[in-house]
Write a structure and sequence with these properties.
The protein has 357 residues and is an all-alpha fold. 72% of the residues lie in helices and 3% in strands. It has two domains: 237 residues, no CATH class; 70 residues, no CATH class. The two termini are 17 Å apart. The model has no long low-confidence stretch (mean pLDDT 85).
């Protein structure tokens, strides 16, 4: 079959540690990238701007959270607050005349500084205590954004981002903004794929399994946890700035609330901790599926002429969506990415059943 390892031999560590050990996976990745590049000509503008573009941006953000939760094993309930810091920092920099390409990088560094400062105190605790500490960070940053008028202008104020331009070229069309989101998502994905093969990635996974055991073998767990929080915060800040520059165009205090932090964490958990392809699938399930389930229920009521009250019809999709998430986790507790791994393992060995993993 497509995943057959017959004839695929590696005579060096470089070949064995390549990104794609199976040619089919490399060809599939190139095909998906080509489809993403051609998306503005393949799908409609409404679908592109309302579904695909936000999916790419939130996937980039979820990959950053997966770095600290899935790779380093540290709970983080204040991720949206760090994204908010990047969104406001990037918008203020762009409004001050700083080019967007520099403003986005400044947004990442601003979030990295804030996230690292809070993580120094947070990393002295573990487990649920760490989760509560990061949640407190969310509340502190939310309060600061709302009450510091120099940042947000007030609780009900909105800050409009200037039109985006990169390297002197204005990017104001639908396709241009989509390509900016796509480029950032591809960069984060490539970084995460290479992180898995690097010494840093192996150290983070050692800390995730047993931090004191990692200390015994020479891995300084606190340092690597701090690096994970810093890198994750940088990705969050850039993702927040890209979200405002290419999608929202206006930043408000309620865009990065505690609920958003929980949603991004749900994307990571449903997709699978430490899984890149699972993060894509989990983001799609959390971000896109609610609208599809609601449309399915409304279409079914019209098709079969069901007499359902307006209030009941408004809550049924939410109940069905919650049941769908529970079903996915019950079916595969390790996330949607594990389903792909199981299918891949089966196809590699098929039809030799004694090789099944």
């Amino acid at each position: 079959m497509f995943y057959r390892l017959s004839g695929v031999r590696h005579f060096s560590y470089t070949g064995d540690r390549s990104l794609y050990r199976i040619p089919f996976e490399r060809n599939a990745a190139l095909a998906l990238l080509a489809a993403a590049i051609l998306a503005p000509w393949i799908i409609g503008e409404l679908t592109l701007t309302s579904l695909v573009q936000p999916w790419l941006i939130w996937t980039s953000a979820a990959l950053g959270l997966n770095l600290v939760v899935g790779w380093a094993g540290q709970l983080h309930l204040g991720y949206a607050a760090v994204m908010g810091v990047g969104a406001y920092a990037g918008t203020h920099a762009a409004r001050s005349g700083v080019p967007w390409e520099i403003a986005i990088v400044l947004a990442g560094f601003a979030s990295m500084v804030i996230g690292s400062v809070f993580s120094i105190a947070a990393l002295r605790v573990k487990g649920l205590y760490l989760a509560l500490t990061t949640l407190a960070m969310q509340f502190v940053i939310d309060w600061s954004i709302v009450h510091l008028s120099v940042v947000s202008g007030g609780a009900l104020a909105s800050l409009r981002a200037p039109d985006m331009s990169l390297l002197g070229f204005e990017i104001n069309g639908t396709a241009g903004l989509y390509y900016v989101a796509l480029a950032w998502c591809v960069l984060v994905t490539i970084f995460m794929m290479n992180l898995r093969r690097s010494a840093l990635g192996r150290a983070l996974m050692a800390v995730r399994e047993k931090d004191y055991a990692a200390e015994i073998i020479g891995v300084r767990s606190f340092v690597f946890k701090l690096v994970a929080f810093a890198a994750s915060s940088f990705i969050a800040g850039v993702s927040g700035a890209v979200l405002i520059a290419t999608y929202y165009h206006i930043v408000t205090p309620d865009q990065f609330s505690t609920q958003v932090s929980i949603q991004v964490l749900a994307m990571v958990i449903v997709g699978g901790l430490g899984s890149i392809i699972g993060t894509y699938l989990g983001t799609a399930l959390i971000l896109i599926m609610p609208g599809l389930v609601a449309a399915l229920f409304h279409g079914a009521t019209e098709l079969f002429d069901l007499r359902i009250g307006v209030e009941t019809l408004a809550h049924l999709p939410n109940a069905a969506y919650g049941a769908l998430i529970m079903g996915c986790l019950l079916w595969e507790p390790l996330g949607l990415g594990r389903l792909y791994h199981n299918m891949r393992s089966y196809l590699i060995a098929w039809p030799f059943g004694y090789l099944k993993k």
